[in-house]
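Give me the fold.
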Amino acid sequence: MAQKGRKGGGGGRRRPEGRPGRNERVVVGVHPVRELLRAERPVRRILVDRDRTQSETLEDLLARAVEAAVEVQEVARTEIDDRAQGLVHQGVLAVAPPFPYVDLSHLANRAEEAGEALFVIALDHVTDPHNVGSIARTAEAAGAHGMVLPDRRAAAITPTVEKAAAGALAHLPVVRTAGFSSALRTLKQDSGAWVVGLDAAAEEEISACPLLEEPIVLVVGSEGSGLVRTSQLHCDMLVRLPMRGQVGSLNASVAAAIALYEVRARRDTPSRR
């Protein structure tokens, strides 16, 4: 357990040990916390349920914490419950700096360093944090170079999003921008990207899209209204997913996953059409 610091001369109330401050965030769950350490992201301290059953994954997490010189505090489970904001934490919680958003140039640089055509997913006012986390998890698995989010009327990266992403956000760069349309325009002009939007009313199915092997920004609309009009105007092509059943639409995260892996499959087998 960490040594308590001495009270300052002002006599003010001291923040309880382990509780995140204003310029900190919590990340909960064994896998999200371990991925922070694997990605060498900054972590200020880790709280572990002192009565938690040991596992290979937890042992690996603790070994990585020691290697990174991150303080580990063994505490009562109720203390972690109090800080986890109702999320399932598996007896592990990290306190870290605020989420490190990046700028658009970072995504282009990442693609260039990998020697790959740019592959970005942009979420057009997706508000459900579970969907944002799930999409981030699939995007990272599919090899996307990053994700773009608007900063209004959309979910930001929160503890719920990081939990749903299961550690993917330790590896997937995220841009959060006040000008979503401007971001699409910048990616087109500066990175030579084509913008392809998912739209249930589009004439072409995604399998017929000739742009998936090119630098691409895949735009996914919100859960209720899909792509807003301004986003549609920035798209070079609108595509839809094949729907053969009676249900008219898919959950945003499911639709994004299908589209992301269509791009991945096309790039892995360029002649596939």
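The two ends are 59 Å apart (CA to CA).
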